[in-house]
Amino acid sequence: MSDVESPIGYEIRIEGVLDPSWFEDLNVRSDDRQTVILGRFADQSALHGLLARIRDLGVRLISVRRVDPEEDRTQ
Prior knowledge:
Layout: E1 8-15, E2 27-30, E3 34-41, H1 44-57, E4 61-67
Antiparallel strand pairs: 1-3, 1-4, 2-3
């Protein structure tokens, strides 16, 4: 295992439609019911920072899922 780990991809689903401009450097798509955010995070603190921003928006978090490298569309 190396000292520096590569960023890990995550898919975050949120209830409702959010403005993609709120999430710089992340892939954001929405339908009429939910928003999906795809991104790569250097470490757990970066992921928790985004989750705190989502919490502060007062929206409902549906799921957080680690994305396997072969299905990671953020690269």
